[in-house]
UniProtKB/TrEMBL annotation:
It comes from Zonotrichia albicollis (White-throated sparrow). GO terms for molecular function: DNA binding. It holds the Pfam family DNA_pol_E_B. Residues 130-288 form the DNA polymerase alpha/delta/epsilon subunit B domain. Its main location: nucleus. Belongs to the DNA polymerase epsilon subunit B family. GO terms for cellular component: epsilon DNA polymerase complex. It is found in: Nucleus. The keyword Zinc-finger does not apply. It comes from the Eukaryota. This is DNA polymerase II subunit 2.
Amino acid sequence: PDDSKNKFQLKTVETLLGSPAKVGEVIVLGMITQLKEGKFFLEDPTGVVQLDLSKFHSGLYTESSFVLAEGWYEDEVFHVNAFGFPPTEPSATTRAFYGNINFFGGPSSTSVKASAKLRQLEEENEDAMFVFVSDVWLDQAEVLEKLHMMFAGYSSAPPTCFFFCGNFSSAPYGRNQIQSLKGSLKALADIICEYPSIHQSSRFVFVPGPEDPGPGSILPRPPLAENITQEFRQLVPFSVFTTNPCRVQYCTQEIIIFREDLVNKMCRNCVRFPSSTMDIPNHVSELIHNFCQDF
């Protein structure tokens, strides 16, 4: 049977602009731009075409995103039914060309995934566990109480690592926050020291949040200053205060940690708001999954 009517063709912007008649059921790969106030365009190396997003229904897409735009072209306007992100290249395909080159970073010139020793070590420690907690407001007594409960629950089987992500204060950054944060970290260190098994066995990684002391919204965000963390590091030697985002390597696993209010930022900058606000968290999680599923 002839399925040509159900197929879409990948076109360039130049092809659309050069067509005097309506062009239906096409897909164009390009970047979303806003060349005029309130009007969005799709740009590729061959040209720029204005977009009509009135029929667009779901997904969070921001300006400067590279997308596959599906729709039809008529009267010098590309009417978009849906956006989608270009498919990512599977890591197996990349490795077939580049071998075991280390793209992740660190001292090794080869990828940790190729290390037989690290893989064996990982298999021998299959019960290893990471604990991630975010928005750890250390200035709140209730939070410290819950941390007590968490450490008590894990004391019989200490996790390999605890990851604490900011913000570490309930109040925005202000004049007295540095001194307050030093005291809060000291209180956390005292709690950790009450559980010797965790204090001696687990590692502690701290990733600053957007409202923690630091240079505004610049990324990567530097670690909390040494004068803030010095006392904590003396009491808890197995602790690391790192950047946001940061990269973590555990045996053959490569992990990226990024603490950011992505939902709020994407909602503020999306080209068109989804028809249902109930699905917004799902849109963001689906977006992240699409980019990360092959790596």
